[in-house]
Design goal:
Structural class: alpha/beta
Number of helices: 12
Order of helices and strands: HEHHEHHEHHEHEHHHH
Strand content: 5-15%
Largest sheet: 5 strands, parallel
CATH class: Alpha Beta
Shape: globular
Distance between the termini: 70 Å
Number of strands: 5
Strand order of the largest sheet: 2-1-3-4-5
Radius of gyration: 27 Å
């Protein structure tokens, strides 16, 4: 009998030891996993700019290209923990972006802290110039007036980039170029594309003169949309010449209220100006690919 009791006690004691040890190892493993999760390197991305950074036209609630880019980064680089701040504001020109930055302690602190900086700028500067001179029916006169505005824009953007340079340390800066949102309905006006590219050349020159500055081109895809071949573009221009003959000032009409005679699949049908979901997808992939290629932000 005593022998039986000893066997039972030994059995139950063994079960107790195994249970306690099991609980200890499970708890330790959970703790280790928690520590590893919290110890992920933190990457803080700051977005500055205008309505494209704000995400106007995005129907998916992703804040345009910004939220989409963060999701791509999280999926591709699970070893990092990403967070971001979006300081985009619809309608802002380059000088207004600078004014907001100088007037906001929060923005300045974010730029100083950022591991990656991204900005959209120039679209509203250029649009203001177009609206100012939209009554000019002569394309050559319009282009001359727009080119005068480029000098002011270059000075304004230079001041903005220099201020950002003063705030950031080793942070890489990615700057988007712009596109012609009304091309598919003004395809015969090649001068407008040339004017947009003139502003883009300023963006490219100035950002690449900055330390770790990178230019992101989205012009071709967002300007031509689904009409990428030469044949398609020539057909658009042909149709536009016919249609333009029916309007007193087709450029002014397109700029002020937009036209949906022909649809660009990458541009919002709500305002014919901002990207839609497909357009923002393209912007985010362009930024993501550049961040993957120029990965200074990973070398913390």
């Amino acid at each position: 009998m005593r022998h039986f009791l000893k066997i039972c006690l030994a059995f139950f004691f063994g079960i107790l030891v195994i249970t306690v040890l099991g609980f200890f190892f499970v708890s330790k493993n959970q703790t280790d996993n928690s520590i590893r999760s919290n110890d992920k390197q933190h990457i803080f991305v700051v977005f500055l700019g205008d309505s494209l950074t704000y995400g106007v036209g995005d129907q998916a609630g992703e804040q345009g290209y910004t939220g989409r880019t963060i999701k791509l980064l999280e999926k591709t680089f699970p070893e990092y923990r990403f967070s971001f701040e979006n300081f985009g504001k619809p309608g802002d020109r380059s000088d207004q972006i600078l004014k907001r930055l100088n007037g906001s302690v929060q923005q300045q602190a974010a730029v100083k802290k950022a591991d990656v900086l991204v900005m959209t700028v120039g679209g509203n500067d250029l649009r203001q110039q177009f609206l100012r001179y939209a009554n000019a029916e002569d394309p050559n006169k319009l282009s001359r007036d727009i080119q005068k505005g480029q000098e002011n824009y270059e000075q304004s953007l230079s001041r903005l980039l220099n201020r950002i340079h003063d705030l950031r340390t080793q942070t890489p800066l990615f700057l988007f170029g712009n596109y012609n949102p009304i091309f598919v309905n003004t395809a015969s006006r090649s001068d407008i594309n040339q004017d947009v590219q003139g502003y883009n050349s300023i963006n490219k020159k100035l950002v690449e003169s900055q330390r770790d500055g990178h230019y992101l081109s989205v012009f071709r895809q967002l300007t031509y949309g689904q009409y990428q071949s030469r044949t398609q573009i020539r057909q658009l221009a042909k149709e536009d010449r016919i249609y333009n003959g029916q309007l007193a000032n087709p450029l002014q009409s397109a700029l002020l209220r937009g036209k949906d005679k022909i649809k660009n699949n990458y541009i919002s049908s709500a305002d014919h100006f901002h990207p839609n979901n497909l357009g923002y997808d393209y912007m985010s992939k362009t930024l993501f690919n550049s961040m993957r290629d120029y990965n200074q932000w990973q070398k913390k």
